[in-house]
UniProtKB/TrEMBL annotation:
Residues 1-28 form the signal peptide. PROSITE patterns: TSP1. Residues 103-185 form the ADAMTS/ADAMTS-like cysteine-rich domain. It comes from the Eukaryota. GO terms for biological process: extracellular matrix organization. This is ADAMTS like 1. Disulfide bonds join 45-76, 49-81, 60-66. It comes from Prolemur simus. It is found in: Secreted. GO terms for cellular component: extracellular matrix; extracellular region. The gene is ADAMTSL1.
Length: 220
């Protein structure tokens, strides 16, 4: 990029100052990006199903420090787990069943939906009121709350939309369609009329169709 130009009669000084500032800004952005090595490959997913997290790293090439992050995340394995696999947080609690707590074995059950720290592993000893934090962080990909797609990554609750993208705020509409406008079904109240042909709405989700709502054709 041309840094500056020789002033000619009638050339506004403000324009020359803009050219100089633009050149410096472009060089500073190039210098900043040049301090980082290329992003590395994505890691193995933290889960095989149910939604997990994968990360990629990059190395700072400066002898001082680099501006920006050296790690980035994305979701992965966004397919439903088989019913017999159980809850992911519950699995992490039960992994401590063979470890003595104050000299005694307990069967640990998950404590979910902690409003203060949803990404710590808090478990309750079965048949007691004993609740213990067995780990400061749950495994990456653990849901922050049972009725949410938001997931814990590196001990922090990250927003996840219905499109399974980190940071996305996209939600399902009343028909269960991700980012839908609610036009694929409607709620019918009152007496059922036989001339309305009721069918099950087939909503595709994770590669499968599931019966979600009883739907009726739009009114004429």
């Amino acid at each position: 990029m041309e840094c500056c130009r020789r002033a000619t009669p009638g050339t506004p000084l403000l324009f020359l100052a803009f050219l100089l500032l633009s050149s410096r800004t472009a060089r500073s952005e190039e210098d900043r990006d040049g301090l980082w090595d290329a992003w590395g490959p994505w890691s193995e997913c933290s889960r095989t199903c149910g939604g997990g997290a994968s990360y990629s790293l990059r190395r700072c090439l400066s002898s001082k420090s680099c501006e920006g992050r050296n790690i980035r995340y994305r979701t992965c394995s966004n397919v439903d787990c088989p019913p017999e696999s159980g809850d992911f947080r519950a699995q992490q609690c039960s992994a401590h069943n063979d470890v003595k707590h104050h000299g005694q074995f307990y069967e640990w059950l998950p404590v979910s939906n902690d409003p203060d720290n949803p990404c710590s592993l808090k478990c309750q000893a079965k048949g007691t009121a004993l609740v213990v934090e067995l780990a400061p962080k749950v495994l990456d990909g653990t849901r922050c709350y049972t009725e949410s797609l938001d997931m814990c990554i590196s001990g922090l609750c990250q927003i996840v939309g219905c499109d399974h993208q980190l940071g996305s705020t996209v939600k399902e509409d009343n028909c269960g369609v991700c980012n839908g406008d609610g036009s694929t079904c409607r709620l019918v109240r009152g007496q059922y009329k036989s001339q309305l042909s009721a069918t099950k709405c087939k909503i595709p989700r994770d590669g499968q169709s599931v019966d979600l709502l009883t739907c009726y054709p739009p009114l004429a």
